[in-house]
Write the structure tokens for this entry.
Amino acid sequence: MNIKNIEYIKAPLAKIDFSDERNRITLGDAGGFLKKSIRELGIINPPLVAENGAGGFRIICGFRRVMCARAESGHEPGSGVPDVLITCALARGFSEADEIAASVEDNAASRRLGPVEISSAIAGLSKYFDKKFIIEKYFDSFGIQKSEFAFARYLEIASLSDAARDAVASGKLPMQAASFLVEFSRKRQEDFMRLASDCRMGANLLTEMAKNIFEISRQRRVAIDSIFETIGLENVISDDKLNSNEKSGLLRERVLDLKFPEYRSRLGAFQESVKKLGCAGVISVNPFPYFEKDEINVSFTIKNASEVKKRIGDIRKFENSDLIKEFVGND
Amino acid sequence: MIRYTPSEIIVLDAGRVINSPVTENILNNLAGRDIPVSRLSREQVDARIERLRSLDDPFREGKKVLLITENDGEFLKRCPGTNEYICCDYYIIDFAQNCPMDCTYCILQAYLNNPMMVVYANIGDLTAELDRRLPATGGTMRIGTGEFTDSLALEHLTQYSDLLMNYFEKKPEYLIEFKTKTDNVETFLKRKPPANVLLSWSVNAGNVTSREELKSATLDERLAAAKKCADAGYKITLHFDPVIDYEDFDAQMEKTVESIFSHLRPESVKYVSLGCYRFIPKLRDIVAARFPNTNIIYNEFIKGYDGKSRYFRKKRERLFKKLYDLIKKRDPDNRIALYFCMESPEIWKAVAGSSPGSDEELGRTLYENCVE
């Protein structure tokens, strides 16, 4: 980057084109601390701008500072509030590669970037620089592992739908869930994000659902779309009789049925056999984990002497029951 | 199949390595191939390993480098097996590590810290250790070399199996098994078959072999090699491991079993093991990253009581039953001992009707079937 050709100027806010976001990697508005600082001290670190060829300027880095200054000035086109001048560093002769590099370096030097910002930075840099160069030069400052795997994973985030990217940026959707979501079509990404909002699924459950839906598609060699149809996402979400917890639980169960069909079917049969014994509430009966052994675990509590007889009676019901025949060894 | 040739050879700068017949064999066999050879200290080797480990796919790059080094630890180990499932009471000789083939499911990807191809050249220490430790084991052991590597993948370079056979020829009570997915059997065909040598092939459904066992010999190549060895008088063993729930499983396995018995007579085959695909959790992410097109890690896996991911029990029973019946049908006189690798008594009973009482009992059965 050629940093010799930088000139400090006073630029009217009205001449700055906020709509040109080609170099923007930050998300959202300025935080409270920055707003307070600008209100009290003005812009200490001037934004870097370039001439836009139409008599105005576009921002290379410092979007949030400039937006904050505009908000503080109260100036909007046609508002009647007088325009203000802000000090800017005007870049002359910067190539497009210089501009994105300056934007990334300025942002990464001043704070820890979020995953979506890292993704935007990588996507922007990738237009001009080699993958290995980007990993070597920038990943330490991003605070992420220097690997091609991390490169690919963050780059994928750039392809997410707006809703999904916003959710990643706000921390509602973990990176791990997002890494599965990139395999979904845009429409299904939007549908999936409705799970987060309409069913109030938390981060862990969203990750589990995204992972399971992706894996079912690989396991059964079917399109992700068909899984959404099989679990009846639309119907469940629009069912007014269900509250958000019930919707979330029902969809999770349906996904688990697809992911673990044989285990879930066996578990269902087991629970049915236990039910037939008629001991519900007083005796707890559980299979060996995943039915790996022909053993069941029976537990109960005795509070007084008379309950001993009752429990023995309950246990006698096990003899010759379907539960013993089906789930416990015969020898 | 294409035989392994390294892009680079590193020889540990240690007397036991430099003066080893294994090192001599490797360097002689690659003479004139313009492969760079460097002699490095242990610290320099460690630095190279660290550099390789920092790469995105250390295995891809690491396999190109052949490290001839020494084993400072024990060569003879009990197969780690699994306490909670029935194992076959097997011993292993750790003479080399890593494998030039690239099976998508390979556990070595998660197990090995050093991504290079490694050969332990201090064979003098190996035989001295065997002299010292074997008498204490009471004999009747089955010992294999194919746990941390393919037994024969480097045989054309090292002739390690030849050196081991020279040793075990004088100890006929111990069975030595060479397990492979190659057709690299020239070593064996050049000599009179020792009665205590078992030549073993890993076999699978044809579509698994072609899509998941990359750079290995085809099933036909393996079986043709097995036939040559059987015809020469060697005892053969086979391992269906991993049995994978794969497309067209029944028909593919029928073809494989048919092909096996069109090459081999049941009396040549001393035992066959069946082991369903299982893996430690760490392997899953490695496979997903290295082989994004494989689907084998996406299935109805449960966590077994050894902590490994396994197919749900009913699925294992179904896959095993199919194979078990296919093999039994081709072996009406029950000459082949069939066993399950690391399986529960419940699976044994469901598929075979009964279960061995202990690891030792199973080991003894297999041993006896080989020495009859």
Summary: The interface with chain A takes residues 56, 289, 295, 298-300, 302-305, 312-315, 344, 346 of chain B (CB under 8 Å). The CA atoms of residues 159 and 220 of chain B lie 24 Å apart.
